[in-house]
Amino acid sequence: MIEEQVRDRLNWAGNYEYRARTIEHPTSLADLQRAVAGATRAGALGSRHSFNDIADSPETLISLDVLDPGVDIDEAALTVTVSAGVRYGVLASHLQRSGFALHNLASLPHISVGGAIATATHGSGNTNGNLATAVVGLEIVTASGDVLAVRKGDDDFDGMVVGLGALGVVHRVTLRIEPSFDVRQDVFTDVPWDAVLADYDAATSSAYSVSLFTDWSGDTIVQAWLKSRTDSGAPAPGAFYGGTPADRPYHPVPGVAADHCTQQLGVPGPWSDRLAHFRLAFTPSNGEELQTEYLVGREHAVAAINAMRDLAPRISPLLLVSEVRSMAADELWLSNNYRRDGIGLHFTWKPLQAEVEILLPELEAALAPFAARPHWGKLFAADASQLAPLYPRFEDFRSLAGRMDPEGKFRNAFLDRVVLGDSVEQA
Question: Which residue, 158, 234, 290, 298, is the most exposed by fewest CB within 10 angstroms?
């Protein structure tokens, strides 16, 4: 029992212990409302996949993990409404059985819908917005315990979607869906960097989703993963910029068995079993890694990639693998892709947090010329004074948080440090 209680207070990677005094698991909307209204300080806890203190509270954390997913598909409107606590892989299975799909999935299908949209977590694809761009409706339990229902097009809706937990506890989410589609996944190894960087947009337009895995050293990309829709009319990707077609399944981390990865080798299958990198039935790692990610405008892709290659002697010793992906622009105020097409420079680190934290300011300085925005749920060094200039609607979000939570019930150390603190006013 003691061991279970300890695990209950750790995040997915085990690098952060939640400081909240209690963790509530409401079983109904009424329970959720009572928990929020009765707390002096409260916060929403998703699937614990954040690597920092974004999902913590000085008093009460509220997890929706035992609520009924309540999957409600509106075929006429092409939407699905679901509990914010449901995991994407579970939702994807429901949708696929009914003949529908989401536009994209993140690498892990294990993450919760509410947590993913609150932090602007993304999949990949030059024309694909992050997961939050599918949101067309939210049901939020506010600080008073009341339920606020908002729809796309309402005032401040674009500020509420990527809410960082600062506005209330999201109870249910309505997402845009589309008819189901099949995907094939092809992997190429040892792809020359020069060939890809000669026309980055063309390279990353080679499939519905393209992921480039690297350790930043040498002249080649270790692996390129191409996820292609079979209904696109495009020919099967038999080649990719001089890379070698894989003759066996690969794991993104070199030397690790691919058992937990989704089907490769060009075998077509449902989107729900291909768009994520890993299978829902397996947890690919737990406590064996840390993560950081910076997103820059796609016009800076080549320069930002080369800046990281120049830092390879500093990065590679701490690294398990890096992934480079592309995303489309959106209108969500605190999205890392607000009004700019972007790329994500993702770092999966060895579990060496002290050493990684020493390196982060150096990475951020190298990416500063490109207005790099860090992923909200991963490790980064920047504070509110550094982040505010990167988001044109930053002050609007702070005002929105002040109106929706005037007593600061949902504030925590993370929000004070990186969004709502006095440092922004003093900048």
Answer: 234
Within this chain, do residues 25 and 37 fall inside the same structural domain, yes or no? yes
**Could you tell me which of 55, 106, 54, 119 has the C-alpha nearest to residue 323?**
106
Look up the domain containing 10 and give its range.
2-63
366-377 b/e with 16+ CB inside 10 Å = b?
A: bbeebebbbbbb
CATH code of the domain in which 421 resides = 1.10.45.10
End-of-domain residue from the set 46, 63, 80 = 63
| Pairwise CA distance, residues 96 & 80, whole Å | 12
Residue 214 inside a domain? The answer is: yes
Amino acid in the structure at residue 196: V
Do 96 and 143 lie in one domain? The reply is: yes
Round to whole Å and give the CA distance between 234 and 226.
Answer: 13
Note the pLDDT tens digit of each residue in 340-386: 999 999 999 999 999 999 999 999 999 999 999 999 999 999 999 99
Task: Kindly indicate the confidence band of residue 286, based on its pLDDT and cuts at 50, 70 and 90.
Answer: low
Non-local (6+) Cβ contacts of 413 within 8 A are 53, 56, 58
187 vs 250: CA distance, rounded Å: 8
Run of H or E including 155: none
Convert the pLDDT of each residue in 184-219 to its tens digit: 999 999 999 999 999 999 999 999 999 999 999 999
**% of the chain surpassing 70 pLDDT:** 96
User: Checking phi first, is residue 412 left (phi over 0); if not, alpha (psi -120 to 50) or beta?
Assistant: beta
Is 277 part of any domain? no
**CATH code: domain of residue 124:** 3.30.465.10
- Give yes or no: residues 31 and 103 share one domain: no
pTM: 0.95
Q: Letter for the amino acid at 132?
A: A
* Same structural domain, 212 and 245: yes
How many domains, in total, are found in the chain?
Answer: 4
Torsion-angle region of 218 (φ positive above 0: left; ψ -120 to 50: alpha; else: beta): left
| Per-residue confidence (pLDDT) for residue 244, from 0 to 100 | 97
Alpha helices in 39-154 (DSSP H): 88-97, 113-118
CA distance 41 to 262: 40
42 and 97 within one domain = no
Candidates 245, 243, 260, 131; CA nearest to 193 is 243
Q: Which two tokens stand for residue 320?
A: 């398990």
Residues 95 and 207 in one domain: no
